[in-house]
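Thread: Newbie trying to understand structure tokens

Hi all, I'm a second-year student working on a class project, and my supervisor (Dr. K.) asked me to get a predicted structure for one chain before our next meeting. I've only ever worked with sequences, so writing a 3D structure as a token string is new to me. If someone could post the tokens and maybe explain what I'm looking at, I'd be very grateful. Here's the chain:
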Amino acid sequence: MIAGHRYAVLLAFEGPDRYSSIGGLGTRVSSLAKALGEAEIETDVVFVGDPTLPPVETYAPNVTLRRWCQWVSAYHSRNVYDGEEGKINDFRESVPRFVAGDVVVRAQAQGERVLVLAEEWQTASATIELDRLLRERDLRDSATILWNANNTYGFDRIDWPALQRAAAITTVSKYMKFELAGRGIPSLVIPNGIDEALLDGPPKDATARLRTALRGKPALVKVGRFDPDKNWLQAVDAVAELRAMGFTPQLIVRGGREPYGELVFERARTRGLRVEQVEADGDDLPALAAALAACDAEIVHLQAFLPESTLYALYVACDAVLANSGKEPFGLVGLEVIALGGVPVCGSTGEDYAEPFVNAIVCDTDDGRELAEYLRVLLGDERRSDRLRQAGYATANRYIWPAVLETLEHKLAYVARSGV
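---
Reply by user tm_fold:
Sure, no problem. This is what the structure looks like when written as tokens:
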């Protein structure tokens, strides 16, 4: 039980389904739910799930998935954000009734409280409506409501005064705290956590197979949306700069379908770098390894869905993982990389865990020359790389979910005392 709460409800658009897991939010929600369940908190995850899967399903001990908006998603099968407006409306109209009329009523009858954790701007109106319903039904004292900001997306669409009355506002980093403060919104920082199992590293045979496929050449990997905020051009320019220094790096990229990707690859060609598309079944590790081994281009555009086990093995097999965003609210990828035993390259915004040349490489600009200089040092000093990996492992231990839940408990105690 966490600060007197035996029940919890997570409200989010993203979740564990492939349909619903687009970025770090899906990972956060899924792993947080498991951590709450392991802490013996009976947890419901209400998210916009795959319309073809059961509406209610047991996910882990003490964790129940509730796939919402499935009737809307049936008309928008691409992913969770396809048909977003209709899903937001349905979520706002129906989720508060379920939480108030089912979960909170049941908890109150047992003399228990419910912890409601709502994520991101899409759930803000549902959070406000939930507060209204609970007050109307004289149930508000049986629920603690937190609304969490993982990013600045959608901030202009939130009724901030109403949300502040409805919930305590939390966020995931000091960077995001100051983003909110710039709007006059006070917030509590509760960092993201990671599954303790990451500390065991990826499967050793998978890592060894991918490392062999890379054939000893300097290897970098970058995964994310094709978006200017992710500093893709810096990554491409750094490869070109490293080649001018006499290195022969290969950058493996896996992006989305965003049009910006074409600008990225055009930049590569302009810098004299070859780009080769590699299509492989990410679930077939031998086939993926063979495809990588056969590719000599400086930029490898990997077009494959990579299961976590394969993605994590690639992170560790490569010399560095480029999570060099110019604007990163938290930087979950970088934290995952250091937990697994890899070396991340981060930006310098929300990555509170990253210490330059101690457990990570940290870039302050979007200049490819800065990134290339730091990678030159890393690639030329194997002992330094090993020290970064060891220090990263120690840092990651401070961010496993049990440690983060302890922070959450202290923040909840403050919320209860202050009436926030």
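A couple of things are worth pointing out once you decode it. The mean pLDDT is 95. Residues 58 and 77 are 23 Å apart (CA to CA). Feel free to ask follow-ups in this thread.
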